[in-house]
Amino acid sequence: MITIEQTDRRRMLAWLGLGVAMPVIAACGSRDAEAKGFPVSYSEAEWRKRLTPAQFQILRKEGTERPYSSPLNEEKRKGTFVCAADGNALFSSATKFESGTGWPSFWKPLPGAIGTSRDFKLGYPRTEVHCAKCGGHLGHVFDDGPKPTGKRYCMNGDAMKFRPA
Q1: Which is catalytic among the residues 83, 131, 134, 154?
Q2: Is 154 designated active site?
C-alpha cells in the first residue's frame, strides 16, 4: 500500500526529472543554422562581417526580433522580400497580410525559396522556416493563416530586405 507521503515524494521527483529533461528535449530536432550543404555557406566569422548584429543573431543563431520592431511590417509597396544574407527571393508582396502578431506575415512563399525543419526550442514542436540558399533562420510557419493556403509564415523582418518592383 502506497502512503500519501510516498505519493508526494514521487510526484516531486517526477517534476524534478521533467525540469532536468526539458533542456534536452528542447534541443532535440533543432537545426544548426551553420549546417553545411546549402549553396551559400560561410564561416561564422564571414557571416559576422556580412550581416548586422541583429541579422546575424536571427539568421545564424536562430534568434527572434521584438514584435512590432521591423519597418517591414509597414511595407505596402509591390515587390519582393529577399533573404538579408544572400538576396534569395522569398515572398511576393502579393502574399503579405496583416496578422496582428507584430511580425511580417505571408500566406505563401515563392517556389523553392524556403526549407522547413522541426523546432523544439520551446518544448513543443514548431515548424521553422529557413532560406533554401543559405539555411538562415527566417521565422516559423503556422496553420492559422488566411485562404487560400491557411498558412501564416511569420517572419523576422531583420532576416529580410525589401526590393520594390
Answers
A1: 154
A2: yes
